[in-house]
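Comment thread on ticket #2218

A.B. wrote:
> Attaching the input chain for the structure job we discussed in standup.
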Amino acid sequence: MWKLIQFSSLLLGALVSPTRTCRIHNSGRSADCVGRQLSAVPRGQLPSSLQDVDLSYNNLQAVHADDFLRLPLLRVLQLQFNNISHIHVDAFKHNPLLESLNVFNNSLEEIPAGALTPLSDLKQLLMSNNLYKHATLAESFSKLVKLQDLSMGGPLVMGLKKADFLPLKNIRLQSFAIKCSSNLSYYEPGSLEVIRTRQMGFDMAVDQQPGVLVHMLHDIANNNFSVIQFRNLFEYMYYTGEEDIFRGLNDINALQLIIHRGKFNEHLLRMALMNLQIGLIRRLRVQYIDFARSPTFSDTGASSRITNLTIDKLDLWYISNPDVLRFDWRFTGSTRSSKLSIRYVYFNYVPCDSWVEMEGVELLDISYCRLQRHHAKPPHFNASSNELTSLEDLSVLTSDFRQLKVLDVSNNKLGSAEDSRNCVWTNITRLIAHHNQFVSEALLCLPTTVQHLDLSHCDLDQLDTTFFERGN
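C.D. wrote:
> Ran it. Output below, let me know if you need it in another format.
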């Protein structure tokens, strides 16, 4: 009978005890509650010693006043990717040490200014991709003097007003990102004038109001940026207007400009480059854009107006249309760029007139481009992860370019005897050719000046020592 009572007690305890849904680790300082389908904060499972709590990717609907009441040491709170529509004004009243709060991609209908007021140590606040309709910050934001990283906005923010960010005028940020509706309706000149930051991100489509770009560039001209990024500048249509909407870009002082996604034609790209060639920006990355020439574009035979683009680094990444390399039939995108990286731009070969313009390139990276033929002349050439087959063609590459020292042709289809004859190399000191399909006879076509040779994973079944006897 006593055993039966004991067993019943154990069974009852098992039914009553909640299943632990969070993993407590780092000596009780961290809680991993990611993706547990939680509809409420599991308060009873969170010890008071916690400093870092991750509740992202759950089904939380709100943050209540007592959810984090017993976590006085909390410094990092991640609530991104939930469905939070409301944060109680006292939600963080007992978390004075909180430094990082992430509520990205929720359903907040207003900026939770009241809840943020007591967080004087807050350094990072990520609250973009929510459902509030205005980006206006309350005056209480001026007290967040330690704030460094701020992202805000969402698909329902139809525009920006001049007073929206005034509370930030005395705060020096490290990064600031703003997201607006893809159907931007208005932008009051001066809206971004008070923002002082090293990194600036714009996620807003100006399809309906292309002229606002001129005002935005004017507003940020007095900053000294490390990076500026435009995301989805034109989301639904290609720009065909005559106004140079990139004018003012030449007044921007930034190390790097990133153009991410969006629709670009030769008309818009030319406007950007025309202003870059007389500006201060030193690096340009164009990635994931949907590039297409205008239906009315025709080759008139005239020279490109992009003749003096002097930048340190040009990246063309993940662009499905290789026409971007010479978008107006004359400009080749590499003029006076010391470092050129072309990745995942799928072409079988690069037009010869593109290579002619690469005399000033010191480092060329055309990896992951499905390249089969090539003509390039840089000192450091990365042609890995393509479909090159001929060592003889590669040797021709160096015949009149004596500065080439490092050649990376790994992950290609090199090494057959048929395509490895009559090779004439000059000055190659480092050859990286792993993950090819070499036969022993092909070794005789390798440069004898190499000091470093990598032929690993090339399926060599025997080694002809003649090459090594000829080497230096």
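A.B. wrote:
> Thanks. Noting for the ticket: The first helix runs from residue 2 to 16.
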